[in-house]
Amino acid sequence: VMDKLGAVVGAKDKESAATATRTLAGIYQRAGLMTEELGRFDEATRYYRQMDEQAESLAADNPEMLGARRVLASSKITLGQFQMTRIGDSKAALGYLQRNLTLRRELLERDPADDQAKRGVCNALGLLAQVWLKLGDPKQASVYYKEEVALRDQIGPALAGLPEIRREDAGLEERLGDLNVALNDMSAGRDHYERALKIREETARQNPGHDPAQRDLLLSYKTLGTFHLLHLKDPAAALVFYRKALAEFKRRLEA
């Protein structure tokens, strides 16, 4: 009886320790996000590294806990995006985002029918493609994008129709536009940018209270304006998109 009781107490202690570690990782992550937004990147780096230490510890101590793997993957995404977009160190970002992809693949292997797990792999592939594009290797980026496109097609309609997933679909189309511009295929680039805009217009229309979906319209108008100006050398067409972006920005500001 005492052996059984000890096992129960031990399990509860382990669960409490895991909860505490996970909570601490979350606190460090939020502190990093706050200091990052304030432009204090050195401070944000310290918080993010502390977040990652806690996440690594949580995963090591709880190898069968799926939640622990998700926390660790989230930590790698946070660090990878921070290095890529704020620090400008794409090589450092590459290591974090490759680890994230490995973790996401492991989660999908445990449940191949899980649409959220498929989504996690898709987003991991897209982030790696972005890094390779920044590193000046669009061919390597295209390998990841090709796999992402194929896997996104396997996500079931219940999840695929949600606003957040439609926003991700539009983001993929826009990044494919960037890829084709880097490959000097302007016709394909324009097709992808226009598909992104179409998805964003539909999503914004169908979800009028969804602020991120409305904000995405600004991104597409600006992207298409810049594309027409810099790559198609058509300032008149660019002006049409820039005016749409300005009108949307004013509408949001007044709201």
List the helices and strands and how they pair.
Elements: H1 2-37, H2 41-61, H3 66-87, H4 90-110, H5 115-134, H6 138-152, H7 157-160, H8 163-182, H9 186-206, H10 211-230, H11 235-254
What would a concise description of this structure say?
With 255 residues, the protein is an all-alpha fold. Helices cover 86% and strands 0% of the residues.
Report on the architecture of this protein.
The protein has about 260 residues and is mostly helical. Helices cover about 85% and strands about 0% of the residues. The chain has eleven helices and no strands. The protein has helices spanning about 1-35, 40-60, 65-85, 90-110, 115-135, 140-150, 155-160, 165-180, 185-205, 210-230, 235-255. α6 (about 140-150) packs antiparallel against α8. The longest helix is centred in the N-terminal third of the chain and has 36 residues, at about 1-35. It is globular. The protein starts with a helix and ends with a helix. The model is unreliable at about 5-10 (pLDDT under 50).
N-to-C SSE series? HHHHHHHHHHH
Helix/strand-derived category reads mainly alpha
Kindly estimate the percentage of residues that lie in beta strands according to DSSP. under 5%
Biggest pleated sheet: none
Unreliably modeled segments: 4-9
Characteristics:
single chain; 255 residues; mainly alpha; 11 helices; globular
